[in-house]
Amino acid sequence: MANQKQKSLSLHEQHPGKVEVNSTVKVTTQEELSLVYSPYVAEPARAIKENKDDVYKYTSKGNMVAVISDGSAVLGLGNVGPKAALPVMEGKAVLFKTFADVDAFPLVLDTQDPDEIINIITNLAPSFGGINLEDISAPNCITIERTLKKTLDIPVFHDDQHGTSIVTLAALINACRLTDKDLSKLHVVISGLGAAGGNIARLLHKVGVSNIYGYSLEGVCSYKHYEDYDFSVQELLDEGVLTPSDSSSLETLIKDKDVFIGVSAKDIVSKAMIESMSKNPFIFAMANPDPEIPYKDAKDAGAKIIGTGRSDYPNQINNVLAFPGLFKGVLKARAKNITDEMKIAAAKAIAYIIEDKELKDDYIIPSPFDKRVVTEVSKAVYQVATK
Amino acid sequence: MANQKQKSLSLHEQHPGKVEVNSTVKVTTQEELSLVYSPYVAEPARAIKENKDDVYKYTSKGNMVAVISDGSAVLGLGNVGPKAALPVMEGKAVLFKTFADVDAFPLVLDTQDPDEIINIITNLAPSFGGINLEDISAPNCITIERTLKKTLDIPVFHDDQHGTSIVTLAALINACRLTDKDLSKLHVVISGLGAAGGNIARLLHKVGVSNIYGYSLEGVCSYKHYEDYDFSVQELLDEGVLTPSDSSSLETLIKDKDVFIGVSAKDIVSKAMIESMSKNPFIFAMANPDPEIPYKDAKDAGAKIIGTGRSDYPNQINNVLAFPGLFKGVLKARAKNITDEMKIAAAKAIAYIIEDKELKDDYIIPSPFDKRVVTEVSKAVYQVATK
Asked: Out of A208, A312, A374, B43, which residue is the most buried by the measure of CB atoms under 10 Å away?
């Protein structure tokens, strides 16, 4: 691990950085120079002036995503600010290009004021085909995304919210396929009600799961804590997405439940708690790098299917399964919004990469290196977008 | 020409667009994924959090320039807005990469309010090693550049102002070398007092030219029109950069002068006017695509040295000679500002690419494809920056 840390530093130092901006055209002669720049670049400029939509025809906009962060909630590191967030955003841009041939440019902002961020992104929008918000703390990320979704004519996606919820849904679909359980009848506990947890609850609710219970720093989610919650958690209660519970602790809440989804903190779940759940429970313990319960403990306590955020255990719930194909699909369709239907289509596409007969306790999630993932996700999303 | 216009449209349509964002690292295995992104991208993030300057060590920032426009003064097309400006900014990014291996990313803004533009660029600065402002109308471009130069810790450059003035100075240096004239003693008329003209005047003044006269839509520059000028032209008078004249027209102003520099409009100079100038005058008629006087007319009227903005005549005053090497030098030196000394060093470097014995009336400016240009300009600028 120390070795991997050093390897990462060396890798980042060598270029330095992980992205570069290349030309797709040659400029080796005076004629080429005159076509690419002055005077004949005036032609596409004129065409776009006449017909704004031609910006998709003559520029890179249509395949260009902005990966934008304010550095307020970076990985597990917290509020590290824009400069420290830059290697992460570059990494995201690398994944967009590598997995989906989508061009993505990392932008880190020197402000954490949501109104300023909204204003900046609004004014940057003409350059991009889509906006991927990243590592912005809750609930600002929700305010920013909602506002931009309403006002911009290009798709806006906050990966920490929606990427995670798509892949979690994919995992749950396959856990149910493997065990012949009915997804909508599952009783689910979600620990962590920030960007990821709140949106996982919403997407599960959308596909018919009606018993979803929440747990957060305030305790078990109920109206008792209502005034302590930010607006996003209040809405989850108001809209009936989360079912309030009068359990006094996570320990009592988790009893007899079928699924535990953790996007919170390490070691908050014990073996005894897993043993108190319904038979053969699903445990998605995604806190990174240390999950809510160690993999082996969950296994020993009788968890049927275990997913984590880590690549060194089976069933990694990894956003890279979702966002590259999702954006490829919406960009191709030139969709103005990313809808719940597209997210559900993406989750199903990820899940059904694995055939019935291939499904196993430790193989409910395909590998991000499975080339079919991006193809199937983008196809599914494109179909919904153009329907 | 119709043919070239069609060629340009086809070239822009084929990719579409002219830039792409590539990864400099491979991601083909789980290990590589873990180094480039979660979890080990946390290492450079942590290092930068501890030492902000490490952002240059571990990210692409240090070689990354933002090419930013509000679309308010694009080429000769005017205020075409951000989307129509995008092919031009992509073209600029292509030239940065092709000529100097500097990464540059095109950003067009959906606002033309200078305060908003300043705020946006300020907040974008952490992602970039330098800012190249482009095709922003005067005098806003001057306000924006001045403010950002004061507040940002990375170099800010408005190419329409400074790129043009550097290459014009290079041309003038060589015209003097060839004719054994003393640069500082030249009497110069500048037609057009916007972004380019104002800054050409400033740079010439800086190197000792004390007789510079202006001409603009208001007429010959004098205190008579003071109230009609924007602040940038008023300053040129207040600071003694421009010498006021009581000539009633360009025709009378140009009489007996040594140099005419046009960054204004076509066909405002006649053969008779050139004939009225001092013997063997220098005519830099840079209005694009149609110069202030047709090349042949200037020649016939006795102009000794003629430069234009066009690539199909000798001595093209082309900004591409300056900005790639200039930025390469300042980025390498990690200079916080681009100073007049650096601009003068760049101009001299461009000029002295051509040896004394090679200089000719129709060869005072090197070709942009001369590989020595970017090398010499970046070296000269680097030396000044690190002095």
From this structure: A374
Q: How many CB pairs under 8 A join A and B?
A: 347
Q: Pairing state of beta strands B156-158 and B130-133?
A: parallel
Q: What is the DSSP letter of B243?
A: P
Nearest CA in chain B to A370: B28
φ, ψ (nearest 5 deg) of residue A268: -100, -5
* C-beta of residue A125 within 8 angstroms of C-beta of residue A55: no
A328: phi then psi, degrees, rounded to nearest 5: -60, -45
Q: Is the pTM here over 0.90, yes or no?
A: yes
Choice among A37, A223, A296, A360 that is catalytic: A37
Q: Which residue has 């006795």 as its token pair?
A: B302
Give, rounded to a whole angstrom, the gap between the first and last alpha carbons of chain B.
47
Q: Which parts of chain A register pLDDT below 70?
A: none
Neighbour count for residue B360 (Cβ, 10 Å): 13
Closest among B293, B208, B2, B11 to A25, alpha carbons compared = B11
Distance CA A374, CA B299 (A): 62
d(CA B27, CA B35): 9
Which segments of chain B are extended strands (E)? 19-23, 64-69, 103-108, 130-133, 156-158, 187-191, 211-216, 219-220, 259-262, 282-285, 305-308
State residue B76's pLDDT score. 81
Contact status, residue A289 vs residue A313, Cβ threshold 8 Å = no
Residues 6+ apart with CB under 8 A from A55: A48, A61, A126, B83, B84, B86
Burial class (CB in 10 A: 0-12, 13-18, 19+), A381: buried
Question: Which pLDDT does position B288 carry in this prediction?
Answer: 82
Report DSSP state, residue A242: S
Closest CA to B89 of A298, B80, B251, A246: B80
The band of B289, judged by pLDDT with boundaries at 50, 70 and 90, is confident
Say if residues B238 and B205 touch (Cβ distance below 8 Å): no
Question: Which residues 48-67 in chain B show a CB within 8 A of chain A?
Answer: 48-49, 52, 55-64
pLDDT tens, B194-220? 999 999 999 999 999 999 999 999 999
Residues B36, A91: C-beta atoms closer than 8 Å: yes
Give the N- to C-terminal CA distance of chain A in Å, as an integer: 47
Task: Determine the Cα–Cα distance for residues A142 and A140; give it in Å rounded to an integer.
Answer: 5
Q: What are phi and psi of A67, to 5 degrees?
A: -100, 105
Residue B251, H or E segment: helix B250-253
Mutate to test the interface with B, among A7, A8, A151, A323 (most CBs of B within 10 A): A8
Tokens at B321, concatenated: 């000679």
What's the alpha-carbon Rg for chain A, to the nearest Å?
Answer: 22
Q: Cβ B46–A88 below 8 Å, yes or no?
A: no
Helix (H, G, I), strand (E, B), or coil: what is residue B355? coil
CA distances from A57 to A60, A313, A334, B2, B78 (A): 8, 44, 12, 20, 21
